[in-house]
Amino acid sequence: MKQAPVYFENAFAQLNEFIQTHSDKKIMFLVDENTHEYCLPILLAELPEIQDMEIIEIPSGEDSKSIEIATQVWISLSELGADRNSIIINCGGGVVTDFGGFVASTFKRGVKFINVPTSLLSMVDASVGAKTGINLNHLKNQIGTFTQPEMVVINPDFLLTLPDKEMLSGFAEMLKHGLIQDVNHWKQLKKISALNPENLAPLIQASVEIKKAVVEQDPTEKGLRKILNAGHTIGHALETYYLDHQIQFTHGEAVALGLILESYIAVMKKQLSLNDFEEIKSVIDKFYTKVDLPKAEQILPLLMHDKKNVGKEIQCVLLDKIGFCNPEPVNISIAEVDLAFDFYRNN
Amino acid sequence: MKQAPVYFENAFAQLNEFIQTHSDKKIMFLVDENTHEYCLPILLAELPEIQDMEIIEIPSGEDSKSIEIATQVWISLSELGADRNSIIINCGGGVVTDFGGFVASTFKRGVKFINVPTSLLSMVDASVGAKTGINLNHLKNQIGTFTQPEMVVINPDFLLTLPDKEMLSGFAEMLKHGLIQDVNHWKQLKKISALNPENLAPLIQASVEIKKAVVEQDPTEKGLRKILNAGHTIGHALETYYLDHQIQFTHGEAVALGLILESYIAVMKKQLSLNDFEEIKSVIDKFYTKVDLPKAEQILPLLMHDKKNVGKEIQCVLLDKIGFCNPEPVNISIAEVDLAFDFYRNN
């Protein structure tokens, strides 16, 4: 399935052109309080053509991906006079683009939306794939749709507005793209000395294009696309666990941790070489602080709720080597997760 | 766009075959308390192949098409172990099929669902068109998706389980199908002496096929499909008004009333002949009891929220003659609505 266009060069010009051809439509901006303050002014300065606009703000953070906030935004859209021809521009990180995509794809059975990702994570991950979603009682992205935005506008200048730890969050998805599909991308990433916009900006487009190529071959995750879930089975469960326990832990930190733990399981299953595993672990350890893991059994219920599961098995995609992930999911046991946790604690 | 298959003859056999080819999947039945008691036993008796099933019941009635009930059902699906491969079978009237389709199309970004409409209205109207939806603060179907069921299973025997007034509700959509697109269907319907399953069952398939042909030409309501909204601009607003005032009034009664009122406006606009209008009114008056209308201005805010509106105009599709609705929406004024209300009150 053809994915929405992702613009890097002249991205704002493309957006301006779109707005000019839809000048009779109401534009609704969705932001959080941070992107409202730091990103929306940059964006609006580039969009002189807008005639009829409204701004809807949601609180920043994962908690906004809730049914209650979605309901509030649907009501705001309704009250602000959004109709089927209105256009929603989601300006923010992955929470804003996932959430805004879901709200747009279900409001009056679907209105057009555009994503302007402002975090590294949303640029390299949420910008492609047409996944929209909100959480159900802290189970991540349980409710959502597959809906394409009209376009995705990527401008690395927004990264200058981000706190450093947000770089860590997006960087994990870039590492994953290298690990699952492109050893050269991996090699470029591991050479990076510090995670700053200057070092990262030149690699964003390559990372997005890896994901885009995968998704275009398998838009609804029947086969190949499953490789994008590398690190995410255990990563998502840990992310939810820490969220439930009010421990600050970004999606990317969870994915980086998940990549180590799942790669260890791949070694136990004799699927991945120990050499490759050690390289993966050393690169991730270079950037990411070690964390205290809960007991494996504490995340079992969360592992059982993974959307990728079929029936009662915990399913996971694992690396065959650096640069290649096997798309065929394998069952992993809680005992294997437990062993991987033990290894991580002791190394 | 190809619509989902709608089975009439051997409908249960088709459903059985589907279940046999998905025998490893969990089947989740969605019902309300009435269809749980009266329809599900009939359905299950015909489906001996089911191995793994669960039943989720929602309260009957329009109030169930809420975000709160949707959230409860998403949680139930999650707790009962539904995964991406599960299949939801919606067994009920339009509330159950609209609601169940929405819940299915958004649970884990979409699971397969099958509609088994049990009311005349859901057979002739909700069975085709891929519209799913719930209400937002009593604004009907503000939240929803366009998603095809896997199949629609129509068995007129379910009509025997229905109270008489439910016949009135579905019959209005059948009348509309004749009025907008097929003068012969209209002629057959106006000959009916009493609205019972025996008289109606033979006409259901023809009525469904009119709608299906329209929808297949214009699945997302860009052009021709708008004719299916005949009677619905004013009809929907009145339906919501009566619902808000705890007055029992079915969707079909609202549509029948909307057809009279909008046809009167078509006469005022010199689009429809007085002869045709009088024939329409006399046929509808034969079956539907006269009701007390509110003041036109009381439904103005509801008219303004119609999903079909663009900008601040109230838009409406109107008949050119019996058997032909003009798909180009026209603006109607509150003054015209007021005049139509006056006419209805006095005739």
Automatic annotation (TrEMBL), chains A, B:
InterPro entries: Dehydroquinate_synthase, DHQ_synth_AroB, DHQ_synth_fam, DHQS/DOIS_N, DHQS_C. It comes from Profundicola chukchiensis. PANTHER family: 3-DEHYDROQUINATE SYNTHASE. It holds the Pfam family DHQ_synthase. One of its GO terms (biological process) is aromatic amino acid family biosynthetic process. NCBIfam families: aroB. This is 3-dehydroquinate synthase. It comes from the Bacteria. Catalyzes the conversion of 3-deoxy-D-arabino-heptulosonate 7-phosphate (DAHP) to dehydroquinate (DHQ). Residues 56-167 form the 3-dehydroquinate synthase N-terminal domain. GO terms for cellular component: cytoplasm. The keyword Nucleotidyltransferase does not apply. Keywords: Cobalt, Lyase, Metal-binding, NAD, Nucleotide-binding, Zinc. Its cofactor is Co(2+); NAD(+); Zn(2+). Its EC number is 4.2.3.4. The keyword Translocase does not apply. Residues 170-309 form the 3-dehydroquinate synthase C-terminal domain. Coiled coil: none annotated. GO terms for molecular function: 3-dehydroquinate synthase activity; metal ion binding; nucleotide binding.
